[in-house]
Amino acid sequence: MRIYCAFWDEGEHRFKEPVTYDFTYPVGFPHIILNAKDMQEAKEKIELINIKAKGKDRFDFDTRRILLLALHENANIH
Asked: What is the CA radius of gyration of the chain?
């Protein structure tokens, strides 16, 4: 497993493409980090998050809740 980071794109109201997290920069809200076996899995998780978070503002969810969306396909944002 590797750690990836996805930054929030304010203009698009979605997370950008994941990048490999190298621990040299801080990641704070609303940016997220996630575990994945490779870049393809990381991209799939971010896409799933973006689909489920469509139309939501970054303040409508917390990091823990949005990460759960990448892990549980049936999760919903409240």
From this structure: 11
How far is residue 32's CA from residue 29's CA, in Å, rounded to a whole number?
A: 7
Alpha helices in the chain (DSSP H): 39-52, 63-71
Q: How far apart are CA 4 and CA 37, in angstroms?
A: 10
CA-based nearest residue to 66, from 55, 78, 28, 22: 78
pLDDT digits over 26-78, tens only? 788 788 888 899 999 999 999 988 887 777 766 666 656 666 655 554 444 33
The CA-CA-CA angle for residues 56, 70, 55, to 5°, reads 15
Residue found under tokens 């990836």? 4
Phi, psi of 4 (to 5 degrees): -120, 155
User: Rounded to 5 degrees, what are φ and ψ at 33?
Assistant: -120, 150
